[in-house]
Write a structure and sequence with these properties.
It is built from three helices and 30 strands. By secondary structure, it is mainly beta.
Length: 372
């Protein structure tokens, strides 16, 4: 198995240099799908549900080495991940940070069952200590009041996630006259962006408000603040709300961007902040200087573009259905890179490597294409 994995990694290293050619770098065992995918530098990571009585597993693979399963199998009956029932309609969240050769992972498990209270678990492990660590249990009632999980992101030495607290504007009015218009309206009442370091208790990023989207790069964390809540309690951003970037270490405000519409997705990498924004004229994908907040360019994208982005210093990747596309930031040229066999999972870019997971015929696989 070791020789096989090393051969596979060597094959990827050799073939990735052929720009524009899509490579399959991993195929799962039969009947094992992939529910989440993430990458950072030379790492790829994915979540696979257990087959039969087997544990669900998070896999981390440093290309050129051997893949490792998390959480540690020895803790089968002492963790949430192993026996969690993963419904197909409730995807798992996953983020990986290379952390100077000491990989750390963060993942979320969502409960979609019709219970009185709905839970999201924020969990993690490291390659150095593969035992599961439960960082937070986020819960809200079926009517929407309580805590909602926002997003999660990882890059370099930074892992972050966000939580939004939603409460009734006037709980007494809702209890006494629930059928009156506006009596049971919600408002965002708390929450924040939290950083995970190793197995320590998560720490709030100073100055960061409750957020529905987060992105990370180095010591920078970008977020889309939650400003309102829908009738079912789900938090969302308001139109024209600024997107901020803060230093994850001290909370210092690095830059603030006014997108001129409702931000749907964000990504950050080095000096580039990417925003997918809904405007009156349609969807716009813009990029900004992380240090100044000044816009460097923008393009119009199809209305069917998925609300997910990934960025490098030279390109932004996004998808329209199964079509995977990239924007060259120096020329503003948009080109099609590939068409996935099924809905791409965790589409992202690390350096020049664009990668994603897909499920075909009951098996998951990871595919990649090189931009250089």
């Amino acid at each position: 198995m070791l020789l096989g994995m090393l051969a596979l990694a060597a094959s990827f290293a050799h073939t990735a240099a052929r720009a524009g050619e899509v490579q399959t770098i991993y195929t799962s065992p039969h009947h094992e799908r992939i529910d989440a995918f993430s990458q950072d530098d030379g790492l790829v990571s994915w979540f696979s549900p257990g087959i039969g009585s087997g544990c669900n597993a998070v896999w981390v693979w440093e290309l050129g080495s051997v893949k490792q399963q998390l959480p540690a199998q020895g803790s089968k009956f002492h963790n949430v991940t192993c026996t969690w029932q993963v419904p197909p309609s409730s995807p798992v969240g996953l983020a990986v940070a290379s952390n100077n050769g000491s990989p750390e992972l963060l993942w979320t498990l969502h409960e979609s069952a019709s219970h009185a209270v709905k839970f999201d678990y924020v969990l993690g492990a490291t390659v150095a200590n593969p035992n599961e660590r439960r960082f937070e249990q986020v819960a809200h009632t079926m009517n929407g009041a309580g805590l909602w999980l926002g997003g999660l992101a990882g890059s370099g030495g930074t892992l972050v996630y966000s939580v939004v607290e939603v409460q009734y504007k006037d709980q007494v009015a809702c209890l006494s006259t629930p059928n009156e218009p506006g009596a049971c309206d919600f408002e965002v009442s708390g929450g924040g962006v939290y950083r995970v370091v190793g197995r320590k208790q998560p720490a709030a990023v100073h100055g960061a408000p409750p957020a529905v989207e987060v992105a990370a790069s180095g010591s920078d964390v970008a977020y889309v603040a939650a400003s309102s809540a829908s009738a079912d309690g789900r938090p969302y951003p308001s139109a024209n709300a600024p997107v901020e970037i803060r230093d994850v270490d001290n909370g210092a405000l690095v830059a603030s961007v006014s997108p001129g519409g409702t931000p749907l997705a964000i990504a950050v990498s080095g000096s580039v902040l990417a925003l997918l924004t809904r405007k009156d004229a349609g969807l716009s994908l813009g990029w900004y200087d992380v240090r100044t907040g000044h816009q460097s360019g923008s393009v119009t994208v199809p209305a069917q573009a998925a609300p997910e982005l990934s960025a490098s210093e030279s390109a932004i990747v996004f998808r329209v259905g199964r079509s995977i596309r990239a924007i060259d930031l120096s020329t503003k040229h948009v080109r099609k890179l590939a068409k996935a066999a099924s809905a791409p999972i965790g589409l992202s870019i690390a350096g020049k490597r664009v990668a994603w997971a897909e499920n075909v015929g009951g098996r998951g696989r990871i595919r990649a294409v090189d931009l250089s």
